Each structure stands twice: as C-alpha cells, then as structure tokens.
Amino acid sequence: MCVDTTQLLHGLSQGDGQNVELLFEHVYTELRALAASKLKAERPGHTLQPTALVNELYLRMSEQSRVVWRDRSHFMAMAATFMRRVLIDHARSKGAERRGGGRPLVSIDDVLCLNKATDPTELVALADCLDKLASLNERHACIVEMKVFGGLTVDEMSSLLGVSPATVKNDWRTARAWIRSQLNPGS
C-alpha cells in the first residue's frame, strides 16, 4: 500500500488521530536519521539515543491537535523543532545541578555549527536566547530553528514562510548577530 505523507498530514490536520501512527511509521527512518544527526552534535556520552528521541518526539507531536500540516517539509521542520525542545529539556534537567554562578561565555559559531559537540549549558543558553528572540521577532527565531535544527535550505524556509529568499538571508544575518550579542555581551 502506497501511503502519501501529505495525505496523512492533511488527515491529521482534520482530526484523524489514526494518521499519527501511520505517519510516524511512514517517516520513521527519516526521523531516526534526523535524531541521530542531532545527537551527533551533542556532547559525547549523551544519554539519549536516537530511538528514544524519536519516541519522545512522537509523544509530543501526537498531542498537537491544532496544527495545520502543510506538507512533508513543514512536518520535518516541526519535527526538528520538537527534537530541539526535547534536547533542551534534557540538557536543562541534566545541567541544572551542575550550574552555578554566572553563565559562561558561549561561542555562537560553536552553537550554530551542528557538526561540533555542544555543551548542555550552550544548548540551554541558545534555547533561552531563542525564546527571547521569538518574543521580539518570531520569524527571526523561526528561521534560526529551521536552519540550525531543521537543516532547511533558504529556498525551503522561503517557501514555508512565504517570503523571498533575500528576506530569509537578511533575517538570518540579523538573527545571528542578535544571538551573538546576547550570548556574549560586550564582545
């Protein structure tokens, strides 16, 4: 039986709860690969495994009843965002007892470059920064999430957001500079 992801997403948007399981079965391999790539960017010895991350993603995304899913790209971008939130929550719980005093300086280049291991405090700092950015400019925060955590291209982001590629590039530069100033004030 050939299953179309977009049809499953549209059914899910219309309240067909059975589509959640079918959808995850259909895209599980991609989600697990995405989870594995996210975990490679984490610190060595991370306690979450790709399967556990996808399972947590399933639990969180199956609770989303008011989302209108547009297409596979939109779903994967949201999946990346939810994975980021799972990793941030995990980092917060693991790092809470280790944190003391002031926050260390964080390199924006290290945080935004997913091929480098990221310390839990860096992830928490980035999450806090993204929350603050979202309150100031939601589109800028969305672009950072889609680029850094979703791996979307400028054209994909442009299509999802309904803005030109030039606007996406400009927003990315602005958001990155703002995050840099927040993570390393006075630098």
UniProtKB/TrEMBL annotation:
One of its GO terms (molecular function) is sigma factor activity. Residues 4-184 form the RNA polymerase sigma-70 ECF-like HTH domain. Pfam families: Sigma70_ECF (PF07638). Signal peptide: none annotated. Keywords: Sigma factor, Transcription, Transcription regulation. It comes from the Bacteria. This is Sigma-70 family RNA polymerase sigma factor.
